[in-house]
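Researcher: Here's the sequence for the chain we discussed earlier.
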Amino acid sequence: GDGVTDDAAAVKAAMQYASSVSAVLYWSAGTYVIGSGVDGTIDGISTLYMSMYGVTVKFDTSGGNFNWLANIDDLYIEGGIIGESGADLNGGITIRWTTGGAYSMIQLRDVQFQTGGTQSRCIFGDTGNGPTTIDIQNCEFRNFTRGAIENRLDAGLSNSETRAIISGCYFKNMGNSDGNGCSAIMLGRNDAMLESIHITNCTFRNIEISGDVTNTDVHAVLCYGESVVVDGCHIENISNDYGDDAEAIYVKAAYSRIVN
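Model: Thanks. This is the structure I predict for it:
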């Protein structure tokens, strides 16, 4: 991690080995340049536990856009700064599911995610995919144009098999002027409602749509589900310059509780 050499191949090899022996991958402190991504399905990484305290990951897309961590069934990361304020994955996603994803899990602790402001999302489960268990605590997300966390999941899964806990996180400076909506957190959709969503003690600042664009909406929290709790959150500067929907909390759910 010298901040100069492209470490992607060495990091992928370490991930593959750690996954194969069910071990925690401890990164040495330093700054790592990553110029290509990992696909769990292709690269044989189904479970990955990583400790990244003292680590900064810099993405280099000079060779083309890529998703950094894709299609890993069970992913745990603690610590680290992933991305830079002056650079990002552009058309790629930091953590993404494009295939499979049923009964998978993501757990994050004390991670800072940031971009230069052209990357659309940080964590994204495509339609028909995405983790059934989300547990994200004490993390930061900055500068994503479409939002930090979006999980569409699979309409075929039973609601009772999903769970999302997002607690103590900080979301800042999200939005765009290119006609797209933005939700810092979006969980589920009309035909894929999730059960047991808890978003607690989070702070949201500056989630904004600007420019002369129509049919867009902006939210700090957008949830479709059953048994949804939003508690103890601080939300400011949720705006849409064009005048279409701008809502701090929008919940379509049975048994919802929005307090404090």
